[in-house]
Structure of ABC transporter permease subunit:
Amino acid sequence: MSGDGFFDVPSDLQHSYLGLVALHLQEALIPVAGGLVLALLLAQLCVRYGWLYPPVLWGTTIFYAIPSLAIFVILIDYTGQSRTTVMIPLTLYTLVVLVPAIVDGIRSVPEETQAAATAMGFGAWRRYLRVELPIAVPAIFAGLRGATAASISLVSVGALIGNQGALGNMLTDAMFYHRPMLAVSSVVTTAVLAVLADALLVLGRNLLTPWLPRGGRSGTPAAVLPGARTDTREKLGSSR
């Protein structure tokens, strides 16, 4: 396997089982991170300019419907049989999940909260970063969970172009060498990675949203602006 830059896994590890796991995570998670950055920008534009949301949604949906192999064929002329060829479409695929999740999360912010932020002198982008995004964290992480699981699964398709599928390469090896256990190992490992990634995202969401109820209880978190005091005991004590 050829090197692609800073994020390369050392060549002596690439052909080992753990090396394939590392490559798989690399090819899956970098697109999710890149897609999140793009989705945050697109979502802000879609919320600010409502007319932009439908065409963005249609565009991401249409792109997601295009078979990844067809995109690989187009990209190979420009990026060759490399991991970059695999990660570009995976990055764009994440948008079909992340953009609606972020837009819905931002739209769930109460109007009075947005008005209070504006009254405190928050501009559009400052309000977006410091008020709307923190409140939208649960919706964003819901989108991230779906996008991450899909990305981990789709990496294996890269095995069709120069063995760039990481754990998916074991599927082609299983067919070539008539060793079905390689396919089983690939599928099981991919599933375990998806479950572990999902568990880490749930943990991250819980750490970033301490106001959310736990233990299966339902409820809507209160919207609190930066600097606001939330000590219920102080409020109750002062009212006595």
Remarks:
- The radius of gyration is 22 Å.
- The domain at 11-111+118-209 is CATH 1.10.3720.10 (MetI-like fold).
- Residues 216-240 have pLDDT under 50 and may be disordered.
